[in-house]
Amino acid sequence: MTQTPLRPGLPPVPATILRLPRDERGYPIPWFVATLPDGTRDFRVMDEGRLHEAIRDRRCWTCGDYLSEHFAFVIGPMCAVNRVSAEPPSHVTCADFSVRACPFLSRPKALRREANKPEGLKAPAGFAIPRNPGVALVWITSSYQVFRPEAGGSGVLFQIGRPHGLLWFAEGRSATRAEILDSINSGLPLLREVAEKEGPDAVAALAAQTSAALKLVP
After folding, report:
1. Of 37, 53, 95, residue with least CA distance to 71
2. Each residue of 116-145: pLDDT tens digit?
3. CA distances (Å), 17 to each of 21, 33, 90, 127, 182, in order?
4. What is the Cα–Cα distance from 70 to 68, expressed in whole angstroms?
5. How many beta carbons lie within 10 A of that of residue 142, not counting itself?
6. Does residue 168 sit within a domain?
7. Nearest to 155 by CA among 84, 99, 63, 93
8. Please, are residues 132 and 111 in contact by the beta-carbon 8 Å criterion?
9. Within a domain: 6
10. Number of domains in the chain
11. Is residue 207 included in any domain, yes or no?
12. In what helix (H) or strand (E) does residue 158 lie, and over which residues does it extend?
């Protein structure tokens, strides 16, 4: 079967991602994307079977190949505060490609497509902030833990281990300190609102987490 040509303007594509099928626009279709009953693929829909495979076999969320000792989580600045991801890790090269190539991650003004979502689409676990943060972070670590949240959707979340590499991006390039701080500061009120509902201990914990996250900003 003939592959759709790669979309012009994409960053260099890792060999692992070159093997993936492509949509009609020429974008590689990530390994986690589900095939819908009508045979189409929607980048917003995760294959739950692939999620279980990724956790059980430590497979890259983007390309599906096996991971080794390095795990790269593609997260937003708010996830750098609580160190929690709703998605499994990828290879560093796959994560780097994703933040440069994905229209939502590489375009700060891009909005999430909410129209015509498939029926029965489950909300991800945890508390999601419905915004484009303008900055994406590839958090590279050698450890993580899978856990089920006490509240906030169904499924699992990933507690990210201590970083040994951080790659900050905005508009598909390295983010500036000002861009990173602006994204963090604009998202903190949303986290603070949730913490205040949970009580003083949650507010104090958020303050400590925020202080630790700010030390990671280049």
Report:
1. 95
2. 555 555 555 555 555 678 899 999 999 999
3. 9, 13, 11, 30, 32
4. 6
5. 13
6. yes
7. 84
8. yes
9. no
10. 1
11. yes
12. strand 157-160
DSSP state of 28: B
Q: Which domain holds residue 150?
A: 68-214
In degrees, rounded to 5, the angle at the alpha carbon of residue 39 between the alpha carbons of residues 35 and 42 is 50
> Which residue pairs, CB below 8 angstroms and at least 24 apart, start in 65-68?
65/16, 65/91, 67/91
Residue 150 inside a domain? The answer is yes
Closest C-alpha to 215, from 175, 171, 180? 180
pLDDT band per the 50, 70, 90 thresholds, residue 112: very low
What is the percent of the chain with per-residue pLDDT over 70, rounded to a whole number? 86
Alpha-carbon dihedral of residues 9, 113, 43, 128, nearest 10 degrees? 110
For residue 200, give both structure tokens.
């003083």
Tokens 């987490």, residue located = 209
